[in-house]
Amino acid sequence: MTRNIHFLIKTFYLINKKIINKKTFREIIIKGTLFVSAIFAIVVIFFIVFFLFKEGHPIFENIGLWSFLSGKEWNPSGVPPRYGAFPLILGSLLVTSGAMTISVPLGVGTAIFISEIAPPKIKTIIKSGVEILSGIPSVVYGFFGLTVLTDWLRVTFNRPSGECWLAGSILLGIMALPTIISVSEDALSSVPMEYKEASLSLGATKWQTISRVSVPSAISGIAAAIILGTGRAIGETMAVMMVTGNAAIIPKPITNVFSPIRTITGTLGIEMGEVAYGSTHYHALFGLALVLFVIIFIVNTTANVIIGKIKEKHMPTSKKKKRKRLSQKIVQGVRYSIYALLGLTLIWLLVVWFSIEISILIILIILCYYIITKKISAKSSQRVAFGLVTLSTIIVLFTLGTILYYIIANGIGAMSWEFLSQPPRDSGRAGGIYPAIIGTFYLVSGAILIALPIGVGAAVYLTEYTREGLPTKIIRTGVENLNGTPSIVFGLFGFAFLVLYLEMGISLLAGQITLALMILPTIIITTEESLKSVPQPMREASLALGATKWQTVRKVVLPPAMPGIITGTILSIGRAAGETAPIMFTAVVFSQRFLPASPLEPVMALPYHLFVLTTSVPGAEQNAYGTALVLLILVTCLYIIAIMIRYHHKKMVKW
Amino acid sequence: MEAKKKKMVFGATVGIVGVIVIAAMLGGWFKTVKTETITIRGSTTVLPIAQRAAEAYMEEHPDVDIRVSGGGSSVGIQSVGEGIVDIGMASRDLKDEEKIRYPNLKPIVIAKDGIAIIVHPDNPVTSLTLEQIRGIYNGTYTNWKEVGGADEDIVVINRDSASGTREFFWEHVLEKDDFVATALEKNSNGAVKQTVSQTPNAIGYVGLGYLDNSVKAVKIKKDGKGIEPTVENVLNDEYPISRSLYMITNGEPKGLAKDFIDFVLSEEGQRIVEKEGFVPIG
After folding, report:
1. What DSSP designation does B70 have?
2. Would an 8 Å CB–CB cutoff place A616 in contact with chain B?
3. Weakest mean pLDDT among A272-276, A374-378, A642-646, B51-55
4. What CA–CA distance (Å, rounded) separates B7 from B10?
């Protein structure tokens, strides 16, 4: 970075001496602008971390870090208040790992189906369908979970209540699916045709090509997809608050998926309204947010290390460090013994957690898998694999269909011209939702207008203008961590900083900025991935022909990356339109008569309206469904526009 | 030339659409209607009253905008204390810390409310003593058969800690005992009602205004009599779990806020209170 400042000073000196010409000057200006957006993105990220830390550290001083983390009782309103975060931390980890177990296989499987197996027309339909799934607001998922899923679980498994860990994991798994599928599919589509053609021409079956060439080649994108999906799951507040029961206990026994459970985000969502600013409880909640941040950091770092190892194995041109012969042998020996130890621990855990019968079953399944992949002919194992992949796609589409059916069937009754053009009456039980529609539109557009330039600029700068080194790694870590930050933390930050400190009051602008900050990491990560998927030879060819850096970026690198960038935008639109927590404290009111006359006035918004109707206004079910349906339609329209733009760009890309 | 022309047309379309959209947005912003506005925020129990009253008031005063939001009693108190809103709604008394932190808050009673204990309509239990209710909520009783019901585990439904309803319940029914750790927490009256109506062995508590056919209200057994949670029983002080609902201002209410609160306290306002299922103040 200091190099850049140095460079800038030198440049101004040279310009004054008329040594540099106009073209290079423009290059420098552009590089500077991109640098500023990268810096802005980074500053914001670190600012929020700093803010979390500032608000959270008093609790650690108060009751000590260890007793906060390991305390088994969370009862802030008890006498005396107790702040033991262990059940909450465990809750978040358990629910998220359950969710990932569901969504990673289904998601990657569906992505493979879409990009490799599906015929082109079906491909567009399924991909659009999946993206619609990401537009369903978290409140709607929560409502669906509350009324349909928990009831189904209660009846099917004969439990006193269906609000439990399993319900949370299923719901979060479904919510993370669109992210994983879309980004993985983009990554798989960007694998150059030559790789696949080379593999097929060597006699490999299609599945062998997919599993040994396409997937490893796209592993960086798939890993990014999984990390984004995990971030989405671990940071989700509203839906998980509505279906997990929010009992701050440790499940007995630990594998009891039907036990009610509470996550960190559920705690933040359900208790933040209560705390007095500056009280011990307030600091405890921020301490929780900080703990969540650290957990996400650990998850991301581990994931990146694992991905790095996989990449090394597959890339012929990776930078392997030179190792000496003997120490290499020692390292290998250590590595193998660690693997053996891990394997033994896993088996021991299996036996302890599950009964003997189940662990034998699992080992048998693993053996079957081994036999199938090694002993059966390539063609048969291809049929099996294709069958599984198609099955996962069917499961995903079935889930989408159920939820859509549920919203449409119940919401269509509320639809009328009056509903769409009138303000609400009778606490929302009658009348319409017109101001909420306009409010959501304002919020989303504003958020995208702010986040897109900054995010794309930052990603372009990070990928194209800097070398891969420690500073970029730190920045990337910061971005990935911010991605996992719960939406409610953004809401709190917005409230404390924008609404109170900057005295913006509850306003449209505060909401737009908060939402922009929330979607910024998604845009940066997806843009970076799409830029990285442009093969290096293209850039080199352009530069070799005499183009400047910016010309290369604008005309060679950006166009093929546009589909990926637009995917990121689509995912962000869905997120921004459907989120309740970030706008709950910063921008919205439940009802107002006039549309905002300026960005400094509050707005109504569809997700918040839905939330209040669902939870606080009895007898408003019809309109609640209607609101959900309208929100869905609004987001779908925005998506269709974005998808058309992406399709237009994709046609122009030919490797 | 063909491709370039296509690009130009596409760009022009996007441009025109964009201009229209931006103009529509800006058009909304330049409307200079002189209006008076107040914002009201807080308890989800009081929300239906405030919302209805606001609608009725705005019908009589077309140039006025009253903005209503939920969030919980604590949110309402903090917001009005910090000056973010004009009126805060609360379904509990101010806590000591709040009285110290915001010394100028003026709570005004606008209605009374009973807290009804609800169970699933198929639950055979029809009445409970206060001691039994306390026992259920602090974990002493875990099975319905211990309080005269079927042999089933009790599913305890609680409110979140921002809730004035919960705070009141904790002070007056639990007598400041700890809630049982396995209680499920819900973040509004509506959510509690929804859960109890769906879960055969659940028990919960909601404001009177939220009672309907989807849940069964339990009578409170006192001195051998079972007292139903009704408006009359709250008015004549028979029903043991009743509380006041407040609208709070920072300092004496003035201007539109005062007008509105006076409206809520007027005959018309109190009729709205009754219609929403709450208890009008004498």
Report:
1. E
2. yes
3. A272-276
4. 5
ipTM attached to this prediction? 0.74
The answer to whether the CB of A446 falls within 8 A of the CB of A508 is: yes
Q: Which amino acid is at A159?
A: R
Average model confidence (pLDDT) across chain A: 81
Cα–Cα distance between A84 and A249 in angstroms, integer? 11
pLDDT in tens, B161-188: 778 888 889 988 998 888 988 899 887 7
Interface subset of A 330-349, CB within 8 angstroms of B: none
| Contact: A438, B29; criterion CB under 8 Å | no
Give pLDDT, residue A324. Answer: 46
- Whole-prediction pTM: 0.76
Please tell me the distance from the alpha carbon of residue B43 to that of residue B78, in angstroms, as a whole number.
Answer: 12
A422 touches chain B (CB under 8 A): no
Q: Please give the Cα distance from B44 to A428 (Å, whole number).
A: 14
Identify the H or E element spanning B41: strand B36-42
Express as a percent the part of chain B with pLDDT over 70.
92
Q: To which residue do tokens 């599928």 refer?
A: A181
Residue with tokens 């709607």, as numbered in its chain: A140
Closest CA to A261 of B182, B166, B196: B182
Q: A502 CA to chain B: closest CA distance, Å? A: 13
Classified as helix, coil or strand, A212 is helix
Q: Note whether B210 and B182 are within 8 A (CB).
A: no
- The residue of chain A with its CA nearest to that of B209 is A618
Q: Are strands B184-186 and B155-159 parallel, antiparallel or unpaired?
A: parallel
CA distance A368 to A363: 9
Tokens at B187, concatenated: 């973040």
Residue whose C-alpha is closest to residue B68's, from B91, B90, B92, B42: B42
One-letter amino acid identity for A475? I
CA pair distance A445, A190, nearest whole angstrom: 29
What is the rounded CA–CA span in Å between residue B165 and residue B157? 13
Residues B120-151: tens digit of each pLDDT = 999 999 999 999 999 999 999 999 999 988 89
Q: Which residues pair with B243 in a beta bridge?
A: B113
Residues of A with Cβ-Cβ distance to B29 under 8 angstroms: 596-599
The number of helices, as runs of H, and strands, as runs of E, in chain B is 10, 12
3-state secondary structure of B141: coil
B165 touching A (Cβ < 8 Å)? no
Determine, for residues A247 and B68 on separate chains, whether the beta-carbon distance falls below 8 Å: no
Q: What is the pLDDT of residues A427-453, one digit of tens each?
A: 677 778 888 888 888 898 899 999 999
Taking an 8 Å cut-off on Cβ atoms, the answer to whether B72 and A274 are in contact is yes
What are the tokens at A33? 């602008």
Which residue in A has a C-alpha nearest to residue B102's C-alpha? A276
**Distance, in angstroms, between A187 CA and closest chain B CA?**
27
Q: A314: pLDDT confidence band, cut at 50, 70 and 90?
A: low
CB-defined contacts A:B, below 8 A: 171
Q: In this structure, what token pair is assigned to residue B96?
A: 């000591």
Nearest 5°: the CA angle A89, B163, B191 is 80
Element (H, E) at B66: strand B64-71
Q: How far is B68 from chain A (nearest CA, A)?
A: 5
Q: Using CB atoms within 10 A of its CB, is residue A299 exposed (0-12), middle (13-18) or buried (19+)?
A: buried
Which of A297, A224, A284 shows the shortest CA–CA distance to A482? A297
Among positive and negative, which fits the CA dihedral B262, B267, B269, B274? positive
pLDDT in tens, A161-192: 888 889 999 999 998 998 899 889 888 888 88
Q: Are B47 and B70 in contact (CB under 8 A)?
A: yes
Q: Which two tokens stand for residue B51?
A: 């919302």
Q: Do B31 and A597 touch (CB under 8 A)?
A: yes
